[in-house]
Design goal:
D-Maltodextrin-Binding Protein, domain 2, single chain, BUG, alpha/beta, 10 strands, 2 domains, ten-stranded mixed β-sheet, Transporter, 40% helix
């Protein structure tokens, strides 16, 4: 009899230990937690569904601030506001998401502010190649490695824009004049010298045979670059395709060329000729994604990865991508980090050729 009681107690104890072990493995801590974005999405179809899923271990308790490291109207601003709009309106994230512009230093001011919020799970920021450029040219102490990469959403391309009444109708006509006297033509961009708007133009101009050391580039931030083009203060605006579309439709500017591998689809966008089809063997890809501060809770990271994965296939977001001529480039986790490292290596080489990288 005593032996039977002992066996019974042992069975109960074994069951209890197994149950506790199962709970520990599915709580979103290190043991047994899934790091695959698809698993995160499944766990987050509903914020409270599947309580054993990794991402369900955390959800935002208050509104989320989305930092835009530049002024209003640029590619970062458009991406941040459109993504926040869909995430909120489609109830993908059940908290308000406010975009806050923090311009300065080509992004460096905003990055310093976000970095100071170590472990803050309610702050995100949108970024792209400048987070690599600006660090490499010595204008920011922070690289992408100093933050938490969450998800890349899109890839955009450079667009070289002139006023509608400009004498140039394509890149070859522009570069023929620049070969004669590069400094006579002023190129404007919203990013700092040695950063994206500058370097995408430099890369294409170099492939066209222009002496890139003599190119006159000026940086005008806080939304002033386009007005400078329209009022005749500068000749060419190096920007993103999304920043060109509405002005082209309004008849105020014309696009001389874009940096994609092939023509893009979309209303009006399909008319923009690539540099490659104009005989200039150069492309430039402007990836764009979301990061968080350093030291984010792994469960918060899993939550955001899942929500951005859901955003990526949402019909409202697909429509926005098509409107602005953005291509899908969804990356998370180790795949995203590997992509960023590869981009950094390529950009280092370009800056070294121009003597713009701080050693």
């Amino acid at each position: 009899m005593k032996k039977m009681i002992t066996l019974g107690l042992a069975a109960v104890l074994a069951f209890t230990i197994a149950a506790c072990s199962s709970s520990t493995q599915t709580s979103g801590t290190n043991g047994g937690a899934s790091n695959h974005p698809a698993d995160h999405k499944q766990a987050n179809g509903n914020a409270n569904a599947n309580p054993t899923g990794t991402a369900a271990a955390w959800s935002p308790a208050k509104s989320i601030e989305v930092v835009v490291p530049a002024g209003a109207g640029g590619g970062w601003d458009t991406t941040a506001r459109m993504a926040a709009k869909v995430l909120e309106e489609q109830n993908i994230i059940g908290q308000s998401m406010g975009a806050v512009n923090k311009a300065g230093g080509g992004g460096a001011v905003a990055w310093a502010g976000v970095h100071a919020k170590k472990g803050d799970n309610h702050t995100l920021f949108v970024t792209s190649p400048p987070i690599i450029f600006v660090h490499l040219n010595g204008q920011s102490q922070f690289s992408f490695r100093d933050f938490t990469p969450i998800a890349n959403l899109i890839t955009d391309y450079g667009s070289f824009v002139a006023r509608a009444d400009a004498k140039w109708n394509n890149l070859n006509e522009l570069f023929d004049d620049m070969k004669k006297d590069p400094a006579k033509i002023t190129v404007v961009g919203a990013s700092a010298p040695g950063s994206m708007d500058h370097m995408q133009f430099i890369k294409v101009a170099k492939a066209a045979g222009v002496d890139i050391r003599k190119i006159k580039y000026v940086s005008i931030q806080d939304g002033g670059a386009l007005p400078a083009l329209l009022n005749g203060s500068v000749d060419i605006y190096s920007t993103g395709i999304a920043e060109s579309v509405e002005q082209v439709r309004a008849g105020k500017v014309k696009v001389l060329g874009i940096t994609s591998e092939k023509r893009l689809s979309g209303d009006g966008i399909s008319e923009f000729k690539t540099a490659k089809e104009q005989g200039i063997d150069a492309t430039f890809e402007n990836w764009r994604g979301f990061f968080g501060p350093p030291g984010m809770d792994p469960n918060a990271l899993a939550y955001y990865e899942a929500k951005f994965k859901e955003l990526n296939t949402n019909s409202a977001w697909v429509e926005i991508r098509q409107k602005y001529g953005w291509n899908e480039l969804f990356l998370t986790g180790e795949e995203y980090k590997a992509y960023l490292e590869k981009e950094e290596a390529a950009l280092k080489q370009l800056l070294d050729e121009l003597g713009l990288r701080k050693k």
